[in-house]
């Protein structure tokens, strides 16, 4: 199993599971949900992971990123 | 059943008037629409915590209401609850959408459509669409959503008239079929379709208002349906023509990468220091306080009132004495505070409008984690350097009670406000860089240790960062100036009465000898432990009324040559860490529980003297 904090900068990932229900419903409004494919556009050392969907950028705290399960998404898909 | 649950009813809306409500995500430019539609100014802030006040205006016979920027109609925080109540009982919604961020913004649009409300969509920031190499099929978008879509560039006034005209044509849009079925299944339990939707979406308030016992457990399901639909619409209506990597999105990326982001942040803070700490606090205040107010104005008062009143009488002291209502009060408020406050709010407005604040939050998230805070806490902290009172109110945007307590404690203890900072800078500057670093180092150490300790000993866990990073924008001068003006006026309106009360109090205490007695009483402590001149205790007492009073008192002692450089630093450390001003204390008591407030008050009092005393033992 891979978690979001392990994603690398520039990697495309697909969200597999967001365990916290409250976070899940808030994230869905910002375009992050189980099954969505996003680009890890930046990773601050020990800090937040920045996910990008088209022009939209979201910062996710490192602790939260550790709880979110992801898998690599194939390249070539629209971000 | 009537709409007796409607909390908006208390807002005195004339009978027969339609409620036209502006809704949209944060930073989409709603305020420009509001100003245009109502022809009256509204104070706007782009950050949650500062937009809870609702602006209302008239458009012909109808009422226009602004709402805080939200990502959806629900109650995850105060702003959302406020926006929800207003949207819920609106007659027409003008939904302002950031055309570049439709995958985010249309979530709210579709939710409003699902509520069954008549909607007009203003597709704003069309200039950015071109700049980013995007192409939007507006006609198709309109067909998909089933409502009128008007492309606008509000900052240039493009499309505003068309939106105004379209309000009368607003109509309900295309709902998600399954959501409509669900609404029909519960409509009997509530008054309106909008309420039915929120009931399904597990909105606690609606459930409570209607005494409904079982939760429908449909929120996540509906959110997913909506997200899928929105993503599909965006997929069909938006295409990327060229790479679109504009200069601004490149700069946006640079602000996040620590290698470039930290120097940019330091650069930004340095510019802030140059503007407020050097230009305003020294150059401008030098003219306004010393020349204009302290010179011309003071001479004028002394030559008129001063000759009429005996300088030794009580009334003479109250009017034109050292802390007089016609001497110190206007000289300080207009000469010192006003320029500082204007400078600070100007910088803050630029930061807000540029969209840089959330990026700072992401950048400092890791550091603030040590203190049990997340990056969002940087906003109250930066605000604290302007006014601790305002900053305490914005701690509301933090996710848990625990975080709010930590942030409030740190604000009350270790963040000097702009008024105090101005005086402090004026005192330290002549001492040289070494003393400045010593002072900054001590304050920072206290901040860091207190935060870390609180994080360790307080039970529970803090919330994590989950924040939308808006694109960087060049702020509009007009908007920045309006905001600066409004916030400064508001600040002065609140500060002036307190300043007058403080001045009166001190004059009375001085005249009756109370000031001297207290000062004498704690003098052994001041001279013994803190190794400061006995008169310093007066400055401490004044510091409770207003923080800069204390600093100003010290300034007086310094100018009389009563303190050595080391003593000055000790006194400044004490005055900085010392309890916040009366206004902040009152706000802390309002925002936190009595127990927490007393703890914050007492511990900053004890810590201030403890740290200053220890420092005195080392350096004096």
From TrEMBL, chain A:
Domain Ferrous iron transporter FeoA-like: 2-72
Record Gene3D superfamilies: 2.30.30.90
InterPro entries: Fe-transptr_FeoA-like, FeoA_core_dom, Transcriptional_repressor_C
Pfam families: FeoA
Keyword tags: Iron
Coiled-coil features, chain-numbered ranges: none
UniProt name for this protein: FeoA domain protein
Automatic annotation (TrEMBL), chain B:
Main location: membrane
Short name of any one Pfam family annotated for the protein: FeoB_C
Domain FeoB-type G: 17-173
Binding site for GTP: 24-31, 49-53, 66-69, 124-127
Record SUPFAM superfamilies: P-loop containing nucleoside triphosphate hydrolases (SSF52540)
NCBIfam families: feoB
Role played: Probable transporter of a GTP-driven Fe(2+) uptake system.
Name under which the protein is recorded: Ferrous iron transport protein B
Organism: Andreesenia angusta
Gene behind this protein: feoB_1
């Amino acid at each position: 199993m891979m978690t979001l904090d392990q994603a690398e900068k520039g990697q495309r990932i697909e969200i597999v599971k967001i365990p916290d229900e409250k976070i899940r419903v808030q994230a869905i409004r910002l375009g992050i949900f189980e099954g969505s494919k996003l680009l890890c556009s930046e990773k601050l050392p020990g800090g937040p992971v920045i996910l990008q969907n088209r022009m939209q950028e979201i910062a996710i705290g490192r602790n939260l990123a550790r709880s979110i399960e992801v898998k690599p998404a194939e390249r070539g898909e629209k971000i | 059943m009537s709409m007796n649950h409607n909390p908006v009813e208390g807002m005195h809306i004339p009978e027969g008037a339609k409620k036209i409500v502006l809704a949209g995500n944060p930073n989409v430019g709603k305020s420009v629409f509001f100003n245009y539609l109502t022809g009256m100014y509204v104070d706007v802030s782009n950050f949650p915590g500062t937009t809870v006040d609702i602006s209302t205006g008239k458009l012909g016979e109808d009422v226009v209401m602004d709402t805080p920027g939200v990502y959806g109609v629900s109650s995850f925080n105060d702003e959302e609850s406020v926006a929800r109540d207003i949207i819920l009982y609106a007659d027409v919604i003008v939904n302002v959408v950031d055309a570049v961020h439709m995958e985010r913004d249309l979530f709210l649009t579709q939710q409003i459509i699902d509520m069954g409300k008549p909607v007009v969509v203003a597709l704003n920031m069309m200039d950015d669409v071109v700049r980013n190499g995007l192409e939007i099929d507006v006609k198709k978008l309109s067909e998909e959503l089933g409502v009128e879509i008007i492309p606008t560039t509000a900052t240039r006034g493009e499309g505003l008239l068309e939106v105004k005209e379209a309000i009368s044509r607003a109509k309900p849009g295309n709902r998600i079929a399954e959501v409509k079925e669900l609404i029909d299944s519960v409509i009997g339990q509530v008054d309106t379709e909008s309420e039915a939707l929120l009931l399904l979406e597990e909105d606690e308030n609606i459930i409570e208002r209607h005494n409904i016992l079982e939760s429908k457990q449909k929120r996540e399901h509906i959110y997913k349906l909506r997200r899928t639909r929105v993503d599909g619409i965006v997929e069909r209506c938006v295409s990327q023509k060229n790479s679109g990597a504009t200069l601004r999105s490149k700069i946006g990326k640079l602000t996040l990468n620590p290698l470039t982001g930290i120097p940019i942040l330091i650069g930004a803070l340095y510019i802030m220091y140059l503007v407020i700490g050097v230009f305003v606090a020294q150059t401008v205040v030098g003219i306004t306080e010393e020349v204009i107010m302290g010179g011309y104005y003071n001479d004028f008062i002394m030559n008129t009132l001063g000759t009429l009143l005996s300088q030794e009488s009580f009334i003479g002291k109250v009017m034109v004495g050292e802390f007089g209502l016609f001497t110190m009060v206007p000289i300080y408020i207009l000469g010192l505070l006003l320029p500082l406050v204007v400078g600070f709010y100007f910088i803050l407005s630029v930061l807000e409008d540029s969209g840089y604040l959330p990026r700072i939050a992401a950048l400092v998230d890791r550091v603030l984690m040590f203190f049990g805070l997340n990056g969002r806490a940087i906003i109250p902290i930066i605000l604290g350097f302007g006014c601790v009172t305002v900053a305490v109110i914005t701690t509301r945007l933090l996710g848990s009670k625990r975080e709010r307590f930590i942030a409030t404690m740190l604000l009350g203890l270790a963040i000097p406000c702009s008024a105090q900072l101005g005086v402090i800078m004026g005192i330290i500057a002549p001492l040289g860089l070494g003393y400045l670093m010593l002072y900054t180092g001590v304050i920072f150490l206290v901040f860091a240790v207190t935060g870390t300790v609180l994080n360790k000993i307080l039970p529970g866990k803090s919330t994590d960062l989950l924040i939308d990073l808006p694109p960087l924008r060049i702020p509009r001068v007009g908007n920045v100036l309006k905001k600066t003006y409004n916030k400064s006026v508001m600040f002065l309106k609140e500060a002036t009465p307190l300043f007058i009360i403080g001045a009166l109090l001190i004059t009375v205490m001085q005249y009756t000898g109370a000031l001297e007695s207290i000062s004498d009483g704690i003098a052994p402590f001041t001279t013994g432990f803190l190794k400061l001149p006995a008169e310093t205790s007066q400055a401490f007492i004044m510091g409770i009324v207003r923080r800069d009073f204390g600093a100003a008192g010290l300034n007086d002692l310094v100018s009389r040559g009563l303190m050595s450089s080391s003593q000055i630093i000790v006194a400044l450390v004490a005055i900085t860490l010392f309890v916040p001003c009366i206004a902040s204390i009152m706000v802390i008591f309002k925002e936190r529980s009595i127990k927490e407030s007393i703890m914050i008050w007492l511990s900053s009092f004890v810590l201030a003297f403890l740290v200053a005393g220890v420092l005195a033992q080392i350096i004096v």
